[in-house]
Design goal:
single chain; mainly beta; Porin; 14-stranded antiparallel β-barrel; 5 helices
């Protein structure tokens, strides 16, 4: 147990150091998956789940592993966001940037039925970074920083057990470390830097009635993250107020439920389809509570409320992603993959805002895999084509919101 604890702490530290640059997401606060093989097949992987990324898609699939393995996954999100509000002369674009993320995972078969392991990865993240010059009309013609960052890093020990040749179960315990950073105009520049821990679990089942058919079902429990840290208001002293306060937020990563089918149509062709549901309706408001009583009271002040009331009123709705994927084995070593999925936005038009951007996407994925007896290389390129969304004049940020994202990623698995 001591060794497992040390390993978990090491993996968490490694991911925090290397992979906390993640910014933009799709489908609420969630990123669109884990693993180059799975993503290249459109993330339709619950019914197949035959590599390390099963810890995310369906942990029961890990029971298919025959050898100990060490896997590394790296991805880079390259977003291009726009916000236009012609009535105010706003034509804003996100800053050019890349946001790396990834995972590391180790698994070991104990016997023919039992597999154990541990992984560290980034399942969720959202945010944006805008050019303050483009948005200064909202801050008395002064350019401030408009940036946001919200992410969860997860360390998951896992166990998968093959009950029979047909039926397997798997489960993870998810130790989640959440981070939230905000920069926006207030009285001068407003910033906050919060973090917190939370626990959750993932439970999966895999049924393989024949060698050609896989049926998967996965449930990820809700996780409530309590963020705490500090908030600063650079020029609050102009009103005789403290320029800093301790602060807290609470956000729930809601229940996620997925079902998938994997069908091996021929010896070379595999066809997958998934339906993945997220209970985003649970997120109505991500409010902030200031420890400083005057700051807290100022949230309702008729003049200062706009600066101190930094609650995110979202009123999101539940969403279902429909995912489809193909894999064609050109040879025993090389396989080509492609996928498509529909990614609806959980956000109503009235609550759209530039700091937590939510856009509906159509997504195309392509990739390949190459394997030998000792290792496997997987590559994927994902294109998220956002549909411009109009927020009415009665909305939080009226105007037209848009986003497109390019996501190359690569994975290496070494068999030990």
């Amino acid at each position: 147990m001591k060794q497992t604890g040390k390993t978990a702490r090491f993996l968490l530290t490694a991911v925090l150091i290397v992979f906390t640059g993640i910014s933009l997401s799709a489908n609420g606060l969630n990123l669109n998956g884990l693993g180059s093989k799975a993503i290249a097949m459109g993330g339709a992987f619950i019914g197949q789940a035959d590599d390390y990324s099963a810890i995310f898609w369906n942990p029961a699939g890990l029971s298919q592993m025959k050898n100990p393995s060490l896997s590394f996954f790296a991805t880079d999100l390259i977003p291009s966001g726009t916000y236009k509000f012609s009535m105010m002369g706003v034509d804003a674009k996100t800053k050019s940037a890349m946001y790396p993320s990834g995972s590391i995972a180790y698994f070991k078969p104990v016997n023919e039925k039992l597999v154990i392991g541990i992984a560290a990865y980034v399942p969720s993240g959202t945010g944006a970074k805008w050019n303050g010059e483009d948005l200064k009309v909202f801050s008395k013609n002064v350019a401030y920083k408009w940036e946001s960052f919200m992410a969860v890093v997860t360390v998951s020990p896992v166990v998968a057990y093959k009950i029979s040749d047909v039926f397997s179960l798997g489960a993870t315990l998810n130790l989640n470390y959440g981070m939230m950073k905000i920069k926006r105009p207030g009285i001068g520049q407003y910033t906050e830097d919060l973090s917190g821990f939370a626990f959750g679990a993932t439970i999966g089942a895999l049924i393989k009635p024949t060698d050609r058919l896989g049926i998967g079902l996965t449930l990820r429990t809700p996780t409530k993250v309590k963020f705490s840290g500090t908030a600063d208001m650079a020029s609050a002293s102009l009103y005789g107020l403290s320029i800093t306060s301790d602060a807290e937020r609470e956000a729930t990563w809601p229940l996620w439920l997925g079902m998938g089918l994997s069908f091996k149509a021929t010896d070379k062709l595999t066809i997958n389809a998934d339906a993945q549901y997220t209970n985003w309706k649970k997120i109505d408001t991500i409010g902030i509570t200031y420890d400083n009583a005057v700051w807290q009271a100022s949230k309702a002040h008729p003049l200062l409320g706009a600066a101190f009331n930094n609650d995110f009123v979202l009123n999101w709705k539940d969403a279902i992603q429909w995912r489809f994927g193909l894999e064609y084995a050109i040879s025993e070593k090389l396989a080509m993959r492609a996928g498509y999925y529909i990614d609806p936005s959980p956000s109503p038009a009235e609550t759209l805002n530039v700091l937590l951007p939510e856009i509906a996407y159509n997504v195309i994925t392509v990739g390949f895999g190459y394997k030998t007896d000792k290792m496997r290389l997987d590559f994927c390129f994902e294109t998220l084509m956002g549909k411009d969304q109009d927020s009415p004049l009665t909305g939080k940020m009226p105007g037209t919101h848009g986003m497109n994202i390019l996501v190359p990623n690569i994975a290496f698995t070494f068999y030990l």
